[in-house]
Amino acid sequence: MLPPKELLSFLKSEDNFIIATHMNPDGDALGSTIALSMALQRIGKKTVLLCKDAIPAQYKFLPGQEKFITFESLQPSTFNLQPFNLILLDCNDIDRIGEKSQISNFKFQISAVIDHHETEKAFGSIRWIMPHSAATGLMVYHLIKHLEVEITEEMAVNLYSAIAVDTGNFRYENTSPEIFQVASELQKAGAKPHAIYRELYESWSAGRFNLFIRVINTLSIENNIAIVYVTRNMFQETATSPDDTEHFVEFPRIMKNVNISVLFREINDNYYKVSLRSKDDINVAQIAASFGGGGHKNAAGFRINTDFETAKKKVIAKLSPVLNQN
After folding, report:
1. 52: CB partners within 8 A, 6+ apart
2. Residue segments in the chain with a per-residue pLDDT below the cut of 50
3. Do residues 140 and 310 lie in contact, with contact meaning Cβ atoms separated by under 8 Å?
4. Which among 217, 290, 293 is positioned nearest to 248, based on CA atoms?
5. In sequence order, which residues have a C-beta less than 8 Å from that of residue 149 and are 6 or more positions away?
6. What is the number of other CB atoms lying within 10 angstroms of the CB of residue 10?
7. What whole-number distance in Å separates Cα of residue 126 and Cα of residue 4?
8. Sign of torsion, CA 173 174 178 184?
């Protein structure tokens, strides 16, 4: 995997980078951002890590996660970053990093995008978007190698975690021979697969487990589409947060005859975040895009403003024809 020459030149010749990732960050977003920041610092660059939302509890083990700041904490005078350059990681739409009011006063010289999502926006002076890459972490791994920076143990933990999350711990269709080769190199550099797996998948709180039970009990199946939902009341009753629902949408896919799983998460009255997961060649990114969202072929999402039953009917109506084609 060869990064664009203009991206490498940008990173080598410029300085004062704000590296931003999308709101509601996952392991790929966080691990990629931290690892790239560490690599740039090793070649003498100044970096600031920016994320609108707090780091989810399950990712607090990532070395360097404490370096993230929010828009409220971003004071150019404090960081002496004017003028600065922007690197957008694991998304290619600047609207995904914050609210419009926060982004409107967000000024920068040059913007670079490093991403692997299938749905694509036209943002970025320099763009490296590879939808066929299993993870942004994989792209950052190759970028660091081409910057001729030695991958430290802390970088390795972040990159391994990023790749593990976006490949379902090496179970998804996007897991290629290259993924195993890179994972092997990261293990040699200090990443411990068993320890990372435990942090990612075996560190649930009692509240999160109780929330999972409630969500699974909402299961309904129609036309090989499994649907579950989570309400605001469920969060209150289990003392949990939306971060605790990560991976919930993937569990209904375990069933042999389920080809698509859908999770509706209530955000507000008649307002839902919808997560889609599919098997094989069923492209849910296109469905998400039709609702104004996006993502990957087998993992995508969007938001919808209507009551639950109407939202459910609309999603099934869009998904059913796709299933019939496969």
Report:
1. 23, 70, 71, 97, 98, 99, 102
2. 78-79
3. no
4. 217
5. 39, 42, 43
6. 18
7. 9
8. negative
Q: Tell me, what's the pLDDT at 58?
A: 92
Instruction: Single out the residue of 249, 243, 321, 245 nearest to residue 287, CA to CA.
Output: 321
Decide: helix, strand or coil at residue 153: helix
DSSP state of 306: S
Could you read off the pLDDT of 101-148 as tens digits, one per residue?
A: 777 767 788 999 999 988 778 898 999 999 999 999 999 999 999 999
The half-sphere exposure of 187 on its side-chain side, counting CA atoms within 13 A, is 13
Token pair for 172: 């998804």
Judged by phi (left if over 0) then psi (alpha if -120 to 50, else beta), residue 124 lies in: left
Task: Give exposure, 250-264, as e/b (b: 16+ Cβ within 10 Å).
Answer: bbbbeeeebbbbbbb
Note the pTM of the prediction, 2 decimals.
0.90
Give me the pLDDT at residue 207, please: 96
Predicted pLDDT of residue 296: 86
- Measured CA to CA, the distance from residue 85 to residue 259 in angstroms comes to 42
Q: For tokens 């660091």, name the residue.
A: 144
* Cβ neighbours, 10 Å, residue 317: 9
φ/ψ (deg, to 5) at 191? -70, 135
Residues whose CB falls within 8 Å of the CB of residue 129, separated by 6 or more in sequence, listed in order: 92, 113, 114, 115, 116, 117, 120
Look at phi and psi of residue 139 and say left if phi exceeds 0, alpha if psi is from -120 to 50, else beta: alpha
CB under 8 Å to 315, separation ≥6 — which residues?
A: 227, 262, 274, 287, 304
Rounded CA gap, 281 and 116, in Å? 17
